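Review box. Two proteins, two foldings.
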Amino acid sequence: MSVRHFLLTHEGAITEFTESEASAVAEGKRELPQFADKRLRYVQVAYEDTANDEGEIHVRTLGAIVTFDADGRLREAGSADDESDKLDPFEHDACVQYALRETVGQSYALN
């Protein structure tokens, strides 16, 4: 199983992090100064590396709201408080498609 990590800004930017980068941020070992004093949406996409006998790749997603302090250290993670924090279907699908870009390639995926 592979896992990809994404931060989404309210301005529409999506930033991907490797497993080791995401772990370092979560453990407080890495600062993200570009996100200092921000409240962002986080999406984790976990998926099987190969298709099953039916040609399907199972995908699981998890979302959270993450807050960073003035230095860009992760301060807290939680659930959405209001509509502006919620991930819209386009953003969700974009993260899934981007996570699967090497596994699926140019093939189409059904959601």
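Next protein.
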Amino acid sequence: MIVSRGPGGAGRPRERSDGDGDVPDVTAIVGRQLRQALLTVGAVAGLLAGVPVIAVWVPGPGAWVALSLALQGIWVGLAVLQLRRAERLER
């Protein structure tokens, strides 16, 4: 077997252009996405801590069912919001 080209050089990889000649700043994008993810984690932590507190004040089993269903809707909403914001930050 004959190898016509050697392996790529060690060190920094080549930066790719996004088509306009601009090189995206990957570290800045990752930093913004990390900050956004931390906000989402904070919201999730608030929900995890807040729901049991609310549940103590809510009497009756029907209210627990409603609270559980509302919480599931909030989880889905947070996930969709996080996805949209992360995609927007990549642009």
